[in-house]
């Protein structure tokens, strides 16, 4: 009887010690952080959904640069962003050269960035640590499209897609 108990104890020990989870295993990288890191130039800013403006139907994908002259003083906030550049460094610092009042009022010109929610969200944080999350609509080696909800004074709160091109 004793050899059976010794054998069972050895089998149990082998099974339970072999199934131990490794604590030091790092989660595999999706590669998206490496794609985001770098300097990006604003290519366009488009309306994300179809809307009516002054009785006209404006289809999704229409450039806000075209619509800006029809928006009065609020249009100046849009055209001000036309030459913006965005730098996302590999050490998670971010900097915007240009106007941020319309697109990034929380983050401003400097802060930090990371990817969140399965690398589907570009999480910006202001220098004071205030979070400013944006869904990534598309990411390739040369193109980044992110969702923005912008408040255009005296017009509306508008869902936009910021289209960036890697420089």
What does this structure look like?
With 167 residues, the protein is α+β, with helices and mostly antiparallel strands. Helices cover 20% and strands 41% of the residues. The protein has helices at residues 2-18, 32-36, 64-67, 73-79, and strands spanning 38-47, 51-53, 56-58, 85-88, 93-97, 110-116, 121-126, 131-139, 143-152, 156-166. The mean pLDDT is 89.
What is the share of helical residues? 10-25%
Instruction: State mean pLDDT (0 to 100 scale).
Output: 89
What's the SSE pattern?
Answer: HHEEEHHEEEEEEE
User: How many β strands by DSSP?
Assistant: 10
How many helical stretches? 4
Strands of the widest sheet, in order across it, are 1-4-5-6-7-8-9-10
Largest sheet: 8 strands, antiparallel, barrel
Distance between the termini: 75 Å
β-strand amount: 35-45%
Structural class, from helix and strand content?
alpha+beta
Which segments are poorly predicted (pLDDT under 50) over 5 or more consecutive residues? none
